[in-house]
């Protein structure tokens, strides 16, 4: 296990950085890739400090740019020589009612949430196929990829697209023993992305900002938000040998909020 290599795109901060650290604790060597190269280097340095060895390395990538993703794959290959797991954790959300939703915001959401996933999956699948590695590709998705999201059409449309892409990649790569799955997260209430949307949600709901989180907690049968650890727990299973018979799935981590 000690020589397995994980690539986490969007690994420089928040959930992505947490997943990088969790994978390193499980013995993976981790390529931390992020649009913010400084954050990627910082996350890698923290992992190396914690583990006491050179377990991680930072890389800058613009997942929406084909040449940038190709260069990332080459750089990771040069640094580590193999890839066993790709985690696509890059994501953006910009909220607005459909009648005033800017095209540039819609296109940006599709580029980061969907096109970037496609490009990274394509390039890292090539390395897995080349080396005969029965690897894992895991997309960090959202419950908004299964149910529509009010004032979030760009995000939800891209996340629904991710489900179709995951199923198609799973079929493409099944002969190589590479599995592809999406993790459908509930609301990460403490994440910067959710926190940044609170003023818009407060306006949408007509309530004070400090009441927004509770509204979202009340929608969840298990009565709490989704934690980073919840995501890591499920990720580690689907990255493992125990999940070798599961592919093309969209796995809910929603506290019962979405059940199909």
UniProtKB/TrEMBL annotation:
Entry keyword set: Oxidoreductase
UniProt cross-references to InterPro entries, sorted A to Z: NAD(P)-bd_dom_sf, Sc_DH/Rdtase_CS, SDR_fam
Protein name, as recorded: Sorbitol-6-phosphate 2-dehydrogenase
Gene3D superfamilies noted in UniProt: NAD(P)-binding Rossmann-like Domain
The keyword Nucleotide-binding is assigned to this record: no
Family to which the UniProt record says this protein belongs: Belongs to the short-chain dehydrogenases/reductases (SDR) family.
Single GO term (MF): oxidoreductase activity
SUPFAM superfamilies: NAD(P)-binding Rossmann-fold domains
